[in-house]
Amino acid sequence: MLLEDTFLLFSILGVCLLWLGTPGATAAPLHTIDFSGHPDGPAEEWLKQQGFTFRLDADDLQPHFKNNRLVLHTVRRKAGLFELPLHVSPVKRIRIHWGVERYPRGADWSQGITAVPIAVMTTFGTKKIKSGSLFVPNAPYFIGLFLGEKEQTNRAYTGNYYKTGGRYFCTPCGVPVGERVVTEFDLDQTFRTQFGQTVVPPISRFGFQMNTRGTSGGARAFLEKVEYFSE
């Protein structure tokens, strides 16, 4: 799923924990997407070999490996999504190792400017939920986590579309530029609370994206590793 102008794409009642170092949880992940351990250089071919689909302006986000990280970068107004089919269940929480090196200037979710330097998207099941527009494709339920400069941590955001089936959370907000953070987020409880469901469908897709539309100065961010856990 894309944030707003892309695919067009807290009150956190779940649990969201943030570490600035290494998390203490020891449970083995159900599934890991690891972007570390690659020599510096372009990442397009590796991503495609793993099964990622490039959507919208993804090619223009200059995905490349540097310092054991996958880096996205643009100085223009671009929106792109890298999406990977998955089937993982049962999933309770997600852990993301990531950071921001430059925020897009002018991003303001309260004013409908849903730009992000980086976001991680988790899609649940295959049942299509109405997008809210005849011109925007319907899509399954999804939860997007992003690093925002000025957004509110304790708030569930919705965009101009996918108000029924999509939620976005800034977690954490205001991360210092260049700092690596580890975000842990309870997907299971958040899904049940936000969508009023008693059963959480299996994860069907994973994605990450950058969106600088409606802003200036571009953005630069990195992603090291994403892990899904059953507990």
Structure, briefly:
The chain is mostly beta strands and 231 residues long.
Break the fold down into its secondary structure elements and pairings:
Layout: E1 16-19, E2 31-34, E3 41-42, H1 44-50, E4 53-56, E5 64-66, E6 69-74, E7 79-88, E8 93-102, E9 116-129, E10 139-148, E11 166-173, E12 181-186, H2 187-195, E13 203-211, E14 219-229
Parallel strand pairs: 10-11
Antiparallel strand pairs: 1-12, 2-14, 3-5, 4-7, 5-6, 6-14, 7-13, 8-12, 8-14, 9-10, 9-13
Task: Tell me about this structure.
- The model is unreliable at 3-25 (pLDDT under 50).
- The protein is 7% helix and 44% strand.
- It has two helices and 14 strands.
- The radius of gyration is 16 Å and the shape is globular.
- Strands 1, 2, 3, 5, 6, 8, 12 and 14 form an eight-stranded antiparallel beta sheet that branches. A six-stranded mixed beta sheet has the order 4-7-13-9-10-11.
- The protein is mostly beta strands.
